[in-house]
Structure formats: C-alpha cells, structure tokens
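Class prep. Protein, please:
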Amino acid sequence: MPRHISNPSPLIRCPWPTAGDPLYLSYHDDEWGVPVHDDRKIYEFLLLEVFQAGLSWRTVLYKRENFRKAFAGFDYRKVARFGRRDVARLLKDAGIIRNRLKIEAAVNNAQRFMEVRREHGTFADYMWSWVKHKPIVHHFSRLKDYPPYTEEAVAWSKDLKKRGFKFLGPTVLYAHMQAVGMVNDHTIDCFRRART
C-alpha cells in the first residue's frame, strides 16, 4: 500500500510581497535584505530608490531591466558623465519613469557617489559605517510594525544632503537600507530571516 506523502507547508514570508507575483516574490526571496558590498550594485539600488520615491517599489521592479539599459548597466562612472543629450534621451524612453528631476538626480548622485569613493575608498565602506558595519536586526511581526524611517536613516540622509545627493530623504533611504541588508527587516516568522 503506497504511503501518503503530504505536501510541504507553504513558505512563510514577510507580509508585503504580493502573492502570485513571481517577480516580486523572487525579489523578496533572493535579494531583499541580503547585505550588499559591491559599489555598482549599491548604486543600482540608490538609483532605483530615487525613481521609486512617491511610487510603489513594484512599479520600479517591473521596469528594472529598462533602467539597466537606459542607465549604462548602472555603471556610476558612465552615468556621472551623462549630459543634456542623455537627459533628453531618457525623457523619451517609455521604458523608464520619465521624470526630469529624478533623471537629473540620478546623474548628480552618480557624480556625488564618485566623490564619496574618492574620500572613503569605496561607497560601501562609507555606507556600512552608518550601521557600524553590521546589519541592524529588527523584530517585526506585522506590516504596521515597520517604521517609515529610523534614526540611522535620518542621520545618513542629512549627511548625503550635505554632500549634494538628491531625492534621498529618510524614508527613501530607509527603503534602501532594507534592500541592501543594512537592516534585517524580515519578519520574525519569515523563512528568509535566518539567512547567513
């Protein structure tokens, strides 16, 4: 007589990824909250966060590959050299979010990004210093537990503003910190919480 094999329990995730949305689920499962130390990847997230301001992350996520093509593969060195023609080209690109201020901010931020690299060696070293080079672990269980920003995000945002960065206020910056693993904000029951 064949033995009955029960189906494994479904994975428990954070409450924010939309069920039935493979791209969103994949982003949560494979990227969100994983510590990032590569400057090019960090710039990618900073650029995407600039365009996400005032919109949903899902909207940006579905345009991510278009942004990659439009912004030289997120190579901050190349983006830092973008001029008026590039801005005009990007304003005509229906594959991205066509907002002049955000496009100009992405170029400006690439230039400021390189200044930080000259000062600190890598942007990653500067970025991680805001959390003492170790992820802050929060203990959230519900969506309403997530704050809009933290003290660290406020302090870092002020420093970035002094350095001339644009569109990186505390709320946007906290979303960046979550994305690049500076904070572990997976809920206490999420299967991704105990990552290494």
